[in-house]
Amino acid sequence: MQLEKFNYDNKIVRNFGIATIVWGIVGMTVGLLIASQLFQPALNMSSQYTTFGRIRPLHTNAVIFAFVGNGIFMGVYYSLQRLLKARMYSDTLSKIHFWGWQLLIVSAAITLPLGITTSHEYAELEWPIDIALTVIWVVFGINMFGTIIKRRERHMYVAIWFYIATFVTVAVLHIVNSFQLPVSFFKSYYLYAGVQDALVQWWYGHNAVAFFLTTPYLGMMYYFLPKMANRPVYSYKLSILHFWSLIFIYIWAGPHHLLYTSLPSWAQSLGVAFSIMLIAPSWGGMINGLLTLRGAWDKVRDDATLKFMVVGLTAYGMATFEGPMLSLKQINGIAHFTDWIVSHVHVGALGWNGFLTFAILYWLIPRIYQTSLYSKKAASFHFWIGTLGILFYAIPMYWSGFTQGLMWKEFTPEGMLKYPNFLETTLAVIPMHVLRAIGGALYLAGVIVMTWNLYKTMAQGKLLANEPAESLPLAPAFVPHASEKSWHRSLERRPMQFLVISLIVILIGGMVEMMPTFMVSSNVPTIATVKPYSPLELQGRDIYIKEGCVNCHTQTVRPFRSETERYGEYSKAGEYVYDHPFLWGSKRTGPDLHRVGGKYSNAWHFNHMFDPTTMSPGSIMPPYPWLMEQDLDISTTPSKIKAMRTLGVPYPDGYEDKAVDDLNKQASEITANLAKDNIKVASNKEVVALIAYLQRLGIDIKASKTAANLDNN
Amino acid sequence: MFRQFISSVSGSQVYLITSLGIFLVFFIVVALMLFLMKKDHIKHMSEMPLRDTK
Questions:
Q1: Looking at chain A, which residue has its C-alpha nearest residue B17?
Q2: A420: buried, middle or exposed (CB in 10 Å: 19+, 13-18, 0-12)?
Q3: Contact indicator for A600, A591 with CB cutoff of 8 Å
């Protein structure tokens, strides 16, 4: 057989590389802004488009899908071609993938500040963008599998298995977590409600971390680390065990995000058990990476690229040890909803994803530009300032997390909450937030230095857009020797079977956890007094979603005395059956709101929304004056009622025709009540709907208690 | 002790036991696959990234 000559496409790798850097700077800058808003509320800039609630999702989406997303495609497009000895299947698909992905990012950057959001964390984009994302992901999949099929290397290296698992799992996660009923072009309701919606969201949320931030990066680690160290991976067998056990176990761990909530306890326990088991494959991967450098540690001293890899892997090991520890109920009881979780996430994001991305950029850009790195000193400076940035970020946030968790739970000897005013606990951690922002600024400064260094590197070299390569073609009829017939060996040359088996492996966990929660009614006991929201409350709920209140306020009271004392009765599954979507939240920058209904007067809420500091001096919540000025869009009310009925909310037939009348009536009652406190506001303003919603929160169960008491008497 | 553990399994706890059982079977299958793999193939695969330039 004759050697075949072909070219690797380096231009697409370069394009994804540049996008990684540009979006990285954008995403981290927004991160620095929102971090600063938490100690300097003036930085919300008195604009609805720049308030914390709206731009916090912009930060998370930008760093996950724009920075890390482009980083993944850069690494995959470079390594896939070389491991398979084939150019990407189609240059056109590569271009559609690249520009389509950038367009998705731009659409997110426009819609999120406008308040167009589904409220599901890391899945905030509304349904038209969800569909576009699916299309672009399929384009990536076709391009990847096309390349795999026309490959010149019979067996697929372990990195490619991670890429396949990433592709198939992200597709499943995205589709299942996007089952929404559109109400308009920019608004939809999730098919699931309450507990079920929470389970689906955190099955998605946890596995977005697993299969977007972890598996593709592990694949890249298995390719780029041996290249950088110029030695094969420490144990290929370990990498196989690592791969299969990681993708099997990860998918089960989602419920650890919902400990002590009203999710059935068996599902919580499953999440905990599998989270603990997850230490084994995660550390297997980390150890495999670090031991690949055995005998090459002298190189680490001189090579900033390897330094980034070592710290990145160590951060991965720390985050994947901490994750299972945080899943232990005793630890979770203190850590959940605090800054501890923010720190945990950022050790992974800044250390693992960030540092691996930087290492790959430093290694790859000089190679495709046929030159050497412009400044090794600047790269080394980037490494040290980046590491310092991570420390300045993580340590204050751990401190802040412990402080919050302990203050929330502290009682006086008399048995009263020591800090009954939640604001005290927020203000106590302000200095830690300042230090965290300094950490973020150091990290971002490093990225800017890298950008300059890589720009100079590109300027002094010339892009080798089409890198020549040659290889023997695959024999058309492959007859395996006896030794070729082992299960895994044959699987390594059958990409489609590999995809199907990976799919089955990742589906098992999700199905075992979700099916009973969806099918067995005893898992979500209903409560007779829990009624659907009134039309005004429903509209108010959508304002709550639009303003991103869920980013700082939870709506789930855990069954701890410290929480029932502070907030009231703990939350029950049956209270959320009409909540499309669930709004439990994941962070308490402000207090839980599930029992806020009836706690304060309408006037208190009005004044608080207009300027939070008038009601809570020192509050870091931004003011929302536009809610008093903007008219509520009531034209959507009938379609929202109809959509909710389709989803199973028991509004009577034809209620959509009466809904607007009911809405106006309730709004007039609220404005009349506000007028008694000398507050004049038209009943068609957004704030009225929001007050209606807040006053409704968590009160249905009180009616059930009253009914029960009457029965007993 | 084991019998006591099993007899206390009731209702929804069956999900826990089944799940751990599924994992155990899966883990044994993967371990078996690893055991059956040949050394030369492992070496060939692990050196793949270092051979990919030409």
A1: A270
A2: exposed
A3: no
Q: Look up residue B2 and give its two tokens.
A: 């084991």
Percent above pLDDT 70 for chain A? 97
- A568-598 pLDDT per residue, tens: 999 999 999 999 999 999 999 999 999 999 9
Query: Which amino acid is located at B18 in the chain?
Result: T
Would you say domain A535-712 falls under CATH 1.10.760.10?
yes
CATH 1.20.210.10 for the A10-469+487-512 domain, yes or no: yes
The model's pTM is 0.94
**Any idea where the domains of chain A sit in the sequence?**
10-469+487-512, 535-712
Q: What ipTM is given for this predicted complex?
A: 0.74
Q: Determine the distance in angstroms separating the CA of B3 from the nearest CA of chain A, rounded to an integer.
A: 20
Under DSSP, is residue A184 helix (H, G, I), strand (E, B) or coil? strand
Tokens matching residue A464: 């080798």
Separation of alpha carbons A432 and A440, rounded Å: 12
Using CB atoms, which residue from B16, B36, B53 is nearest to A486?
B36
Given CB atoms, is A294 within the 8 Å cutoff of chain B? no
- A646, pLDDT greater than 80: yes
Instruction: Judge whether residue A298 has pLDDT over 60.
Output: yes
- Which residue of chain A has the CA closest to B42? A236
Dihedral sign from CA coordinates of A641, A646, A648, A651: positive
Chain A hits for B39, CB-CB cut-off 8 Å, are none
Cα A215 to Cα A207: distance, rounded to the nearest angstrom:
10
Beta bridge partners of residue A153, listed in sequence order? none
pLDDT band at residue A78 using 50, 70 and 90 as cut-offs: very high
Put simply, whether B48 touches A (Cβ < 8 Å) is yes
pLDDT in tens, A24-71: 999 999 999 999 999 999 999 999 999 999 999 999 999 999 999 999
